[in-house]
Amino acid sequence: MDWDEDRRIDPSAGVYDTPRAAALSGVPVSRLHYWARKGIYVPGVEAGPRTRLWSWGDLLGVRAIAWFRARKGSGEPPRVSMHRIRAMLTELEASGISQDQLYRVVAITEGGDLTIRLSANEAIVAEPGRQTVMPDVLPLVRAYGNGPDLFQPRPLLRIIPDKLHGEPHLAGTRIASAVVYEYVRMGYPLVDILDFYPDAELAALEQAIDFERSLPRAA
């Protein structure tokens, strides 16, 4: 997906409870709850504490933080302290970029700075005195950890933030992969599910089932 398409996406769309947000983002449930409690990253739809609901943009936002916090290999940017991440988030807010717009934070410089993408070839460092840099792109929509690609989790599946509340679905349909998988959990054979959705491709249904099985589930 090119930048012109990407910037038309509404990152505040999509509604995921914490287990689903964890499964799709690749960030553990316990970490999401901890970050929300500490104010490190507060979900943009419903902040809790009893109920926390996350937007599609939030999935990318927590991926960005997790990536900066991760211990990396030789030649990759160093791990960033949580104190520095807090300062970066404050600077992003000051720049007019809220947490639910962190889908735009897609770049890493050699020094490990968080950057804000302005165009295909330009970004600014998300720290005071931010200067323009040429970034090495970190595509947050791509698969991360155990989390899938957040546009195309499987070749015949799609995620569109403002469609079906951001749920993964069969491409070109309104058939959510979670609904297909629930039928399987209830004991329906695939032939019956095909009868329920006669316009669905068999391969797409199989990918939906495989995809949902691959995601971690809340106990």
What is the oligomer described by this structure?
single chain
Strand order of the largest sheet: 7-6-5-4-8
**What is the radius of gyration computed over CA atoms, rounded to a whole number of angstroms?**
18 Å
Largest sheet: 5 strands, antiparallel
Binned strand content: 5-15%
Mean pLDDT: 79
Low-confidence stretches: 1-7, 106-110
Topology order in helix (H) and strand (E) letters: HEHHEEHHEEEEEEEHHH
Please bin the fraction of helical residues. Answer: 25-40%
Total E-strand runs: 10
Name the overall outline: elongated
H/I helix tally: 8
Structural classification:
alpha+beta
Distance from first to last alpha carbon:
35 Å
Number of domains: 2
Structure description:
The protein folds into 2 domains: 3-137, no CATH class; 157-214, Arc Repressor Mutant, subunit A, CATH 1.10.10. It contains 8 helices and 10 strands. The protein is α+β, with helices and mostly antiparallel strands and 219 residues long. It has helices at 3-6, 18-25, 29-38, 56-69, 82-94, 177-185, 190-196, 202-214, and strands spanning 16-17, 46-47, 52-54, 107-108, 114-119, 122-125, 132-133, 136-137, 157-158, 169-170. The protein starts with a helix and ends in a 5-residue tail after the last helix. Helix 2 packs across helix 4 (56-69) and helix 6 packs across helix 8. A hairpin with a 5-residue loop joins strand 4 and strand 5. The strands form 3 sheets. A 5-stranded antiparallel beta sheet has the order 7-6-5-4-8, with helices on one face. A 3-stranded antiparallel beta sheet has the order 1-3-2.
